[in-house]
Amino acid sequence: MATDPSSATGLHIQGLSLTDLAAEFGTPLYVYDADVVTRQYQDLRELLHPRLEIFYSLKANPNVAICALLGSLGARAEVSSLAELVTAQRAGITPDDIVFPGPGKTPDELVACLDAGIAAIVCESLDELALVDRLAGERGVTARVALRVNPNFSVKGAKLVMSGTSRQFGIDQETLLAQRDLAARFPSVRLVGFHIYMGTRVLEERVVAEHTERILEAAEQLADALGIPLELVDIGGGLGVPYFEGERTLDPAVLTALLNPLVEKFAADHPRTRLVMELGRYLTAPAGIYVTRVRYLKESRGERFAVVDGGTHHHMAAVGIGSFVKRNFPMRLLNRTATEDDQTWNIAGPLCTPNDTLGKKVSLPPLRAGDLVGVLQSGAYGPSASPVLFLSHGHPAEVLVHEGRALLVRERDGLDDLLGKQRTYDFHGTGGPAHAR
Ligand SMILES: *Cc1c(COP(=O)(O)O)cnc(C)c1O
Questions:
Q1: What is the pLDDT of residues 23-67, one digit of tens each?
Q2: Does the beta carbon of 234 lie inside 6 Å of ligand 1?
Q3: Is residue 114 part of a domain?
Q4: Are 254 and 302 members of one domain?
Q5: Residue from 40, 57, 203 whose mutation best tests the ligand 1 pocket (most atoms within 8 A of CB)
């Protein structure tokens, strides 16, 4: 929400003007406020039961500097690809504080997990478990594995449901319960516990607590039934942030008041079990602004359009691709305070598709060419979750504002990045590449 206190607000971030940042680094540009990332983490960390460890889900924002910042605050890492694993390690997170779920891990990824000795490979199928066992056996090591369970229950309240139904994630709880000799069948695997992830974008504290209660119960039952020790229980997470009109901000005080007693009881019964909570969006989304510059203004059949230099290719979520109804992320004029009354604007991007609309009928002051229009709540699932190569625009620059300084944490893609890996050939003796030049 434009009024959300967790959003970076105003024309400045830590005293740096967005006008200056856009001039220095160009647009379109992602700007992240390290103070907001820090506050999101610490406000929760200070209130959360100390036994529940926060693992940062790199998928939300895989930038190595963001990961390093969170690591410096004490966050661990949840990764789901080889590059994310290496990112977490480069960010200074120790292997013992890394878990790796994901339904389609490659042998290379599994070997990298074994070589690094991470806290747990989270296996999502019995086939994968067999592969991990074989790879560990070949290397003469024992793999620490947590089993991802697709539970036989689901709790309402997540905008995106990951389990409790037919899903590619995890092993169905009933299937698992039928595998009584699991530990003996895979001699190079040490089963250390369970991972259950109910769903994401939860905006009610009560729902997170209900999820957690059910997950902790299920973990105990599964451990008993299968004879698996509970060295690690990953309760997922799914904490949401408000994007749209009418959505609310989770209150860490309310959340932890409900959650901590559950954790306390479980922790007392299981004094050596590591308890893992995975958070992506919650930690980084409120810290990011996607900054675009207005190129052209036009009217079409009675509606105002501002064509800006950013769009779908960097911020598919704000454009609303894949959603049934396009709802607007909070948007704001970033380069000046306007005194005129707001008007209704469509904010369109540069791509040649009508879908490329960052804002439909949003209220903004009268816009001028050259203005900066920002999309707030954009620090998670931005470029890394968007088709950055659409129309060969490439990845935007990313800047992290830390202690009043603007740090370039990712360079904008240039022509070499976009074209350097492509090959063409001399097809009809016309000289091929040279001719094409
Ligand atoms: C995507 C994902 C997360 C992070 O979800 P957020 O909504 O960003 O918090 C955590 N755990 C798993 C297994 C995921 O797939």
A1: 999 999 999 999 999 999 999 999 999 999 999 999 999 999 999
A2: no
A3: yes
A4: no
A5: 57
